[in-house]
Amino acid sequence: MSLGKIEEGFYSSALIHIAELKAVKPELNEILEFYESTLNAQQEVELYFQPDLSIFDNDFFRGRNSEGLPLLMAEDIKADEDLFNKILEDIFRIIRNKREEAIPEPFDSCSLAGQQKVLIKSLMEDGFDIERLADDLKIDFPVFYFLIKNAFSPFISSYAEKLRELVDSRKWLRGCCPVCGREPLIVRLEEETGRRWLFCSLCHTEWLFRRLVCPFCENEDQELQRYFFVENDEEHRIDVCDKCKRYIKTIDTRKGGNVMSLFVENLATLELDIVAEKEGFEGGDIFLLKEK
Question: What is the third-level CATH fold of 169-278?
Answer without folding.
Answer: FdhE-like fold (3.90.1670)
